[in-house]
Design brief:
Helix content is 51%, strand content 17%. The chain is α+β, with helices and mostly antiparallel strands. The chain has 3 domains: 5-154, 2-Layer Sandwich (Beta-Lactamase), CATH 3.30.450; 217-291; 299-441, Heat Shock Protein 90, CATH 3.30.565.
Length: 443
């Protein structure tokens, strides 16, 4: 069976509708058939009394005629309605024209005068018939009136053909009612989905109060799980920060020992020790930065990119290197991202800081919304990075120019942030032959 609740509701509604329609149709058919059969037997009894009265008046008198039954079907051959009169003394048989010369054969049973018997017999066409028989004592006649069941079947068929549109209408009403019931029943799930979307977009902090009472337990458990996740993330960050601060003192001592070794003439040992401490510091800085990445799992609000980009560019433009550069920021005011503001500050700040260090005269930042998500592009007119060095530039703690200050982690951290949000970061050659950093983030 399908996992879709909507499909299950639809299938259940269809099966229930078919079952109800079949049951209702069968029940109505049986009731109508019994009603028609009782009505037909009542009519046969009336016809039998009519013939009996006419028979008493006629009694075989010469020059007189037996009064015919008014239903014209008694005159049509094999119409399904028949009558027959048989003289008990002479065996003479008088038939309705509808019998076309055939004789109705009944069981030889004893009848008292005026008594009526009901028989199921074979008709002139071989089908079953309902027959009523009455014995007239005064005139010694047995009178029979019969109806072929094909007449009943014809009435039943006519009734079904007329009732089928009604059944179809009822089925349509039931299907629509079932669909409406399914929509009403699934509405709380739609509410839960909407509440989760608002939670993810940062417009809501908890599910509690957003869902109907039937899902209150689910909302409570989800909120508890969410709070536990937030608490665990916060504790992990605090522990990472504590570990980083705890390791910085030993690293500082090792660096001091390296300087002492160098002062004592052990240049090679000092250089090796400093290389180890530099790698450890770079690794520590990157892991600490990773620990502070919030990522999309914390259901951040939507952040407007334009003011954020202008703020970072303005701050860097006031620095010693930034004052000598031309800055261009082109970000649509309507462009937003569902992300943590701190993550975006770290992402843009790391890339723009790298561009500021390498640019010759200008830095440009622009962004656009595309089918793949939000695209951020930062480029400068510096020397760029050769394609063979781009992988290394995104590795932890790799500095392509040791003369410049920094840990060499800016682009690597930016890549980690983009990856945390399900995006990516690519290094390219820009329009000015410098470095172009293209970041793609889900919108």
């Amino acid at each position: 069976m399908t996992n879709s609740l909507r499909a299950r509701f639809a299938l259940t509604g269809l099966v229930m509708t078919l079952a109800v329609m079949l049951t209702l149709g069968g029940a109505l058919q049986g009731l109508f058939e019994r009603h028609v059969e009782r009505d037909m037997e009542a009519q046969l009894d009336a016809d039998l009394r009519f013939l009996a009265r006419g028979l008493v008046a006629w009694n075989g008198a010469e020059g007189s005629r037996l009064t015919p039954l008014p239903d014209p079907r008694f005159l049509e051959p094999y119409s399904g309605l028949y009558w027959q009169i048989r003289n008990d003394h002479t065996g003479e048989v008088i038939r309705s024209p509808s019998l076309a010369g055939a004789t109705l054969t009944l069981d030889a049973d004893e009848l008292r005068a005026g008594q009526v018997h009901r028989h199921i017999i074979r008709g002139p066409e071989g089908g079953k018939m309902i027959a009523l028989e009455r014995r007239m004592e005064a005139v010694a006649y047995r009178v029979v009136v019969a109806v072929d069941r094909k007449v009943l079947h014809a009435a039943k068929t006519s009734f079904l053909l007329e009732f089928l549109p009604v059944l179809a209408g009822l089925a349509l009403v039931m299907l629509l009612a079932s669909a409406a019931q399914g929509m009403i029943a699934l509405h709380p799930i739609a509410q839960a989905r909407q509440a989760l979307a608002e939670l993810r977009a940062g417009r809501r902090e908890r599910l509690g109060g957003a869902l109907p009472s039937e899902l209150k337990g689910l909302a409570t458990e989800f909120d508890a799980l969410l709070e536990a996740q937030r608490r665990g993330t916060r504790i992990a960050r605090e522990r990472a920060a504590d570990l980083a601060h705890g390791l910085r003192t030993p690293l500082a001592l090792l660096d001091a020992q390296a300087r002492d070794l160098q002062a004592q003439g052990a240049v090679t040992a000092a250089r090796d020790m400093r290389a180890v401490t530099t790698r450890m510091e770079a690794r520590l800085a990157r892991e600490l930065a990773r620990a502070h990445i919030h990522g999309p799992g914390n259901f951040a609000a939507r952040i407007a990119l334009a003011p954020l980009a202008r703020r970072i560019a303005h701050a860097l433009a006031r620095g010693p290197r930034g004052e000598a550069l031309s800055w261009e920021v082109s970000v649509p005011e309507s462009l937003t991202l569902a992300a943590d503001e701190g993550d975006l500050l770290e992402l843009l700040g790391s890339i723009l800081d790298n561009a500021t260090k390498w640019a010759a005269t200008r830095v440009r930042l622009w962004a656009e919304d595309s089918a793949k998500g939000v695209i951020l592009v930062i480029e400068d007119d510096g020397p760029g990075i050769a394609p063979t060095d781009r992988r290394a530039a995104l590795s932890r703690g790799v500095r392509l120019d040791p003369a410049l200050s920094g840990t060499g982690l800016g682009l690597a951290i930016a890549q980690d942030i983009a990856a945390a949000y399900g995006g990516g970061l690519a290094l390219e050659t820009g329009e000015w032959e410098g470095l172009r950093v293209r970041v793609t983030l889900p919108g």
